[in-house]
Amino acid sequence: MKRNSRLSAVLHALLHMAERDRPMTSEELAACLHTNPVVVRRTMAGLREAGLVTSGRGHGGGWTLARTLEDVTMRDIYAALGEPMLFQMGNVSESPGCLVEQAVNHALDDAFRDAEAMLIARLGEVTLAMLAEDFKRRFAEHRAALKQLG
């Protein structure tokens, strides 16, 4: 079963946008994400509606961040994407009258609800600024390693 990687892809795109001193076109973002510009435009339109990005048309146009990196959490992005389903697992509902199925589904519902609440809370704790800082640290370490090799 294929995983939904939209949240990861959007975070990736936003960090690329943060590193630029100019707007990024849908084509540029699509190249970064190995996808089609139409997919980028559709996704970014939802982020624009949520007030996370802005867009400009024509020469010099493209997508830019509408808020500072410190003001945007992964939870904000998750919400802007329509809060996609976090888990692929689910309950069996073939025999609603079966007491065993009811007991199993009750236990799974509780576990899924708790796990989802914990994950969403964690998404709210991580800002784009934190991700950008992690990227910068990794980039510096990578450059230092390359210098040692060469």
From TrEMBL:
MF GO annotations: DNA-binding transcription factor activity
Pfam families in the cross-refs: Rrf2
InterPro entries per UniProt: Tscrpt_reg_Rrf2, WH-like_DNA-bd_sf, WH_DNA-bd_sf
Cellular compartments per GO CC: cytosol
Coiled coil ranges: none
Protein name according to UniProt: Transcriptional regulator
